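The following block was generated as part of the benchmark described in Methods. Ligand: manganese (II) ion.
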Amino acid sequence: MDRLGSAQRVLVIGHASPDGDAIGSVAGLVLILRKQGKKAVGCIADGVPWFYRSLLGEDLIRTPDQIEGAVFDTVVAVDSSDLARLGDAQALLRGGAPDIVLDHHRTNRGFGRLNYCDPDSPATALIVYEIAQALVPVDVELAQILLLGIATDTGFFKYGNSDHRVLEVATELVKRGASLQRIASAVLENKTPNGLKLLAKMLDTVTLAADGKLAYGWVSAAMLSETGCTQQEAEGFVGEVRALHGVEVALLFVESPPGEVHVSLRSKSHVDVSEIAVELGGGGHPRAAGCLLKVPGVREAVQEVVPIAIRALQ
Ligand code: AMP
Ligand code: MN
Ligand code: MN
């Protein structure tokens, strides 16, 4: 907090392929710093997916090429468990480490000069909310952005991390004018017809193993090109696989670009999927984790990960 206090020109970076928490935490921290009269800008490697854009001001988060050459005295990384998660935004660090890391992944590697990681916090946006409370008034714009992060990382208050504290903070943010309906509509009701076709293809791949306790499905590069979709449209698919009766571990393999397969791992009650993800070079939380594999295709990724998941279930 003291380190942030002395900062004047701040760059806030979130992870590539951003989710609502990465976007909410970056935009929220930028707003707080600007309210304090500092210069601050956010950066996310792939930019902000279009369906989030109605929820935040467009000058808050840029892509790395838009801020190349700008000078900062402080770089903060949020919602990211290791340097590689920053994707192309790593170049802005010019080989150095972020000054501050704010995160909530149990698997955080402590890659900043100063690291604040609270694995018991359901969202990084909740940590940013606590910073806001200490420093600035939480107005409707900030409330909306922070609620985005909290709502999405708790599965809209359905996951095991939705404790009374989360609901109390959400209540406070709604009291300040944030709209859950706007967030839910932007995130959940902006699917595309092509995305539905992709979902149909993915559902066709769903396979059960380990006596029905493991379920996995995949999206190959060919499936993406056949339906005219990007990786973004597969967001949330792993939830469909996890929703199967009797399933404890769900896996989704998404090949994009060809030669890289992103694996999403989810569990319902006892398997710690973050341990599997770490074994594969990724990270995450006990019930939701991910990793990126450099393999020729989804088949190879399935062959590598499924036996590890079956072992974890024994
Ligand atoms: P996802 O399956 O992409 O929705 O990610 C689930 C969780 O795992 C999130 O908390 C991510 O931050 C984390 N995660 C996803 N991919 C990676 C990765 N390649 N390395 C570390 N953590 C990851
Ligand atoms: Mn995230
Ligand atoms: Mn998060």
